[in-house]
């Protein structure tokens, strides 16, 4: 009986091992690359953040010195954190509301749906470098069409847009919203199409008007998407710096210098790899925090019907 | 239109209530307004690209130039190495796309359809790191690549972007939907796992492949900071770098800057017009959680 059992077991185990090996051959090409090029650098960010490593100075362990410098001595740090918040607060709510509104409009039975969707989505796939130069020309303070139009309707002193510390960030926020809204509209549209039509019919039978239907059917049903979209948007705004790079170069002064731009400058302009890594670790924890809030919030506030 | 008529005909499909007509009109007005905001910058760009420099900023805006100045489109190629940019961007995009699709689809098959030790753990590792932005690890990654001599080379950027967690995740979601019976039948017929992947999974997953291909095309073609950090020699410049070079060197020449921007947008525009269904699908699938 024992021999029978082991006799049965062995080929099974062999087969199992073979299956595992085969499975690993499928995974390895991507996994090795991902490990070496993404996972290891993430870990290294933490390691480097604890060391001093500048141009001409070789790497040495300095403990939390970089973090202390970041929080208490780096004059730019709190400025860029504030700018990043400003950018996020300015972008996320408007982008969210506009994308949901456009998605609701698009979810009606109507003609030209594909056309509208394409037009709204195209800015998202258009090259940032190309649209930034157009945007900057349109918003040129002296001769740009936007200010010419403002002057023609009687605004005597139109904003200096990207040229002034006051208006630079709103200009960048405007470009971001213009470029991103179509993307999130498509996300919302997919969610809206998943809302069962019976719910709307039932609400209509109960005499709910359009606004009530939105409040009691649409909004609760898309809550998971709203959480997802807000998380994507917030992480997106916290990590972006390319948009400032191609429009304002972080200026004027430090008006549009954001956290990721500060990382870039410290690493690739000032060659302070240790300090740049400390800033990266800070960004990592911000992203982690946002993700955790999103997970907890989703559990608490989502209405799964 | 009086109410009795409305009641009588309310069962008829073709009939629309007046309030609905008004509602629909508002919907269209809002959509057209939004459309204008999205499109006008592009129209202004094309229009300006065909003007003489002195006419670019005339106000009121002259949407159709009195005389189209096609010469702008000739001159830009001489001023900066645009053609080289196209070539380098094409190489970069095609190589990255092929590698991303191949490695993602292989890994996704194992995660979706094969049972092995550590599968769930590994997949979890992928999913949890998917949201970590590049900005968190770009510094150590750059140092690593620089040690291997892979900076200032297109190969370095290809390698940096070839292995994606997003691709694995997306393809896996798609593969989960392919019935197991199909694979069992193929196994009984003696097809190996590699055979199943090549002859069943890949052909069946064309929509997912198309979606991933487009996502990676758009990302790679438009990527600016990656090449900006990695590439320093002129002969390796991508299209976005060349475009940026133009904008900084000829910053007072708006007509030609607009011409260069238009030219740079054409490839993505063509892709978009023909394959926009897949663009949209990619967004929708990444937005809906599986």
Describe the overall structure.
The complex is a heterodimer of chains A (305) and B (290). By secondary structure, chain A is mainly alpha-helical. Chain A is 77% helix and 3% strand. Chain A has two domains: 48 residues; 230 residues, MetI-like (MetI-like fold). Chain A has 13 helices and two strands; from the N terminus they run αββαααααααααααα. In chain A, helix 3 packs antiparallel against helix 10 and helix 10 runs antiparallel to helix 13. Chain B is mostly helical and 290 residues long. Chain B has two domains: 47 residues; 213 residues, MetI-like fold, CATH 1.10.3720.10. Chain B is globular. Chain B starts with a helix and ends with a helix. The N terminus of chain B is likely disordered. At the A-B interface, helix 1, helix 3, helix 4, helix 5 and helix 6 of A face helix 2, helix 4, helix 5, helix 6 and helix 7 of B.
**CATH fold-type name of the largest domain in chain A:** MetI-like fold
Superfamily at the CATH H level of the largest domain in chain A? MetI-like
Tally of extended strands of chain B? 0
Q: Name the poorly predicted regions of chain A.
A: 1-8
Largest interface: A-B, 91 and 94 residues
Number of H- or I-type helical stretches of chain A? 13
| Straight-line N-to-C gap of chain A | 55 Å
> From the helix content, strand content and strand pairing of chain A, which structural class follows?
mainly alpha
Gyration radius of chain B, in Å: 26 Å
Name the beta content range of chain A: under 5%
Order of helices and strands of chain B: HHHHHHHHHHHHHH
Number of strands of chain A: 2
Largest sheet of chain A: 2 strands, antiparallel
Order of helices and strands of chain A: HEEHHHHHHHHHHHH
| CATH class descriptor of the largest domain in chain A | Mainly Alpha
Q: How many DSSP helices of chain B?
A: 14
Q: Enumerate the spans of chain B where pLDDT stays under 50 for 5 or more consecutive residues.
A: 1-13
